[in-house]
């Protein structure tokens, strides 16, 4: 091999025949490679955000670059990887060489939010660029005035942390120690950030190793032909689905609630036009605001694609072929979902992305009501930072456990508990309480499901979670971010909740002998002996709650998923005896008939 990059990578001179056995093997190697990359991140990373919560994603691209495999990781990462990879490759052009490693987090280069940092490794075979291995992970800090990056007081992007446009941190196999030192010097908890950087680098190298071994065994032309077949396979599946949708234009609108920014509730509208086997999605959102909920275009692709895939529910392969028949218009530059510099943006991967996802999903459900499903709980999270006297060093982390919400119900079943938020769609984990307490000087008093938090319906929404923390030996800064604190997750097919407060997010803070409930995004400090408790919303319900089987309501009450009061108000179920949970069938039938009227 040589280290020189040529402008036109190797392509097959003639169409190579692909047999199904080889195709299956190549596909399996690609999928295994991606999984091995994610396991490398989990097992070698330093921070709890990586090694416990798994807030990272991996993917493989060909030389074009076109995504040939996306990991079944964090959806809000995966869509933006496509424009970000293209922007990064275009920035360097021919100046890409064997042994290079590129870092990027800037949303103006197709990225998500700048706390999510991408590593790109070009893969060469006999001097030709043939693949890219890509890893994206949520660093616990990216510099700036506020620990962990989320700054609700930011009026522009420059107040949110380091912006890193595409930059080589390895040049022809030689680490750029000066660049790495400059970046890490500007980040809190340097040891964590450096460990996570090394994990990202290692995962990219694992991907490179496996891809080169694949070419060594089957030859470049055969591998490329198999990849082309997999891209075409995904395209055919999506085109077949789109073709089954009646031609026409369908709209969905979702409300983004005011989370203390003072601009009021905002509508995000998605208009989906189906014509044959092609789909065009047009997004309309309000003008950008001087608050950290603006989304740049690359990030918004993730929200749109997630809404599409929630509707599509297609089997693998998952690659860029899925989106060949889909075009997207994000609306005018300078709007909430197509922001322009210097709009602040750090909260964008949850707010407004989950609302954008809901709008797109609702539009598709107008087209095919039989595929309707309820919304998942939106993210309502907490970051913490302080000084760890045990090690005499600063600590900072995003507590991913604090955004674990409930999944939405479907036409077949109740929503899953503690599975959200919607932007992560089940790929995020909360980690062991004991490991979090070991890693940081905190006491976690409880981490539990919340009674009455699941949206009412014939099928109940999944329950949200409560997470309560106290600092051990010094002051602790906490930063609230997100929404879903006033408007519950949307139900579907007639689902409607009567009890609203338990189904939305909030945060309690205990100090000076009093508990105060917060519903705005704030930065504050608590001391040992004080605590904060974060509550996350549940998922939406499906169908008329008065049609929910009575025995299921009783089971929910027995298991503290629904209270006695919730059973009556949300489901019309009345108990004769609150100890034995004997149902008063006559009163229940009367109440349900009254509610139906």
Automatic annotation (TrEMBL):
Q: Tell me which Gene Ontology terms the entry assigns under biological process.
A: glutathione metabolic process
- Which GO molecular function annotations are given, in alphabetical order? 5-oxoprolinase (ATP-hydrolyzing) activity
Name all Hydantoinase B/oxoprolinase domain ranges.
19-545
GO cellular component terms, A-Z: cytosol
Q: Which residues form the signal peptide?
A: none
Q: What is this protein called?
A: Hydantoinase B/oxoprolinase family protein
